[in-house]
Amino acid sequence: MNLLSDIKAAVRYVFSRKGLLSLALVNMFFSFFIGGFIAVDTGESETRICAALILIPFLLLSLLADELVSLVVLCRVKSDESSTPFSMGWKYLGRYIAQTMLLSVAFVAAVVSSVLLSVVIASFSKLLAVFFISPVFCAIFYLSIRLALGPSIIVLADMGVMESLSESWRVTRGRMMYLAGAAIILALVSSVISISDSALTLVFKALGILILKKLFINPAAGFLTGLLSIIFTVFLARFYLQAAAAEKAGGKAAK
Questions:
Q1: In this structure, is residue 254 part of a structural domain?
Q2: Total Cβ atoms within 10 A of residue 177
Q3: Quick check: is 255 in a domain?
Q4: Is residue 184, in this structure, part of any structural domain at all?
Q5: Is residue 108 part of a domain?
Q6: Cα–Cα dist 239/6, whole Å
Q7: What is the Cβ-side half-sphere exposure of residue 183, based on CA atoms within 13 angstroms?
Q8: Hey, which end of the chain has fewer CB within 10 Å, N or C?
Q9: pLDDT for 111
C-alpha cells in the first residue's frame, strides 16, 4: 500500500461524489451558528453564563451531527462497493453511536486521569511527570490507531460493537505505521487550518471587525475541517475493504 496514493484516491472519491462533498456543509452550518453565538457580546456576566449553558446542548448536537455525517459517508462507500441499498444504513445507527460513545468516554477518561495523575507527580518531580505522561500518551495514540477501524467495520462488515473492535485490532496488526502516518498527515493539515484561523483572528481583531471573522471565516474553516473528516473516513473505509479483499484473495490462493 502506498500511503500518499491512497490518500489521493480518497480525495478523488469524495470530490467525485457531490453528495459527500455537500456533507461538509453540516460542519459549516454549526461553525456559523456557534461562531455567531459566541460573537455576541452580552455584557452581563450572568447573561454570559446563561448563554454558555444554552450553547452546550448545541455543541453536543454538533458532535452528534459529525457522527451522523460519518455514518452516511460509510453507508455511501458500502453502497458503492456492494448491492446494499443506501437506505439500509440506518440499521447501523444504534451500534455506531454506541461504539463512538464507548470509545470517546474511554479515551477522554484515560487522558483526563493521566493528566491529573501527572499533575500530582509533578508536585514531587517534574521530570518524573514527563517520564510518566509521555508513554501514557503514546499508548493512547497506539490504541486509538488499532481501534480506528471499528466504526467502519460496523457498517462495512455488519458486525457488533465489540466484534468490530476485535476485528479492527486484528486487521491493523502489522499496519500500524501506515495508519499512524495517515493520522499524522491528518493532524498536520488540521493544524494548518487551525493556525490559519488563529492568524486571521489576530488580523480581524486588529482591524476591529472580529465579528465578521466569526461569521464568515469560522464557517469556511468548519467546512474544511468537515471535508477533512469525510476524506479520512473514506480513507479508513477503503483501507479496510482493501485489507479484507487481500485476505480473501489470499485465502482462495491458499486453497
A1: no
A2: 10
A3: no
A4: yes
A5: yes
A6: 8
A7: 15
A8: C
A9: 87
Residue burial 134-173, b: 16+ Cβ < 10 Å; e: rest? eebeeeeeeebbbbbbbbbbbbbbebebeebbebbeebbe
Print the domain residue range for 70: 3-249
Number of structural domains, the chain?
1
Q: Are 144 and 151 in contact (CB under 8 A)?
A: no
The C-alpha cell of 245 is what? Answer: 479483499
Residues 6+ apart with CB under 8 A from 168: 146, 147, 148, 149, 150, 153
Q: Other CB atoms closer than 10 Å to residue 182's CB: what's the count?
A: 21
* Distance of alpha carbon 70 from alpha carbon 189, whole angstroms: 19
Amino acid at 162: M
**Residues 144-159 pLDDT 10s:** 999 999 999 999 999 9
Q: What is the pLDDT of residue 39?
A: 46
Question: What is the Cα–Cα distance from 42 to 38, expressed in whole angstroms?
Answer: 10
**Are the C-beta atoms of residues 21 and 227 closer than 8 Å to each other?**
yes
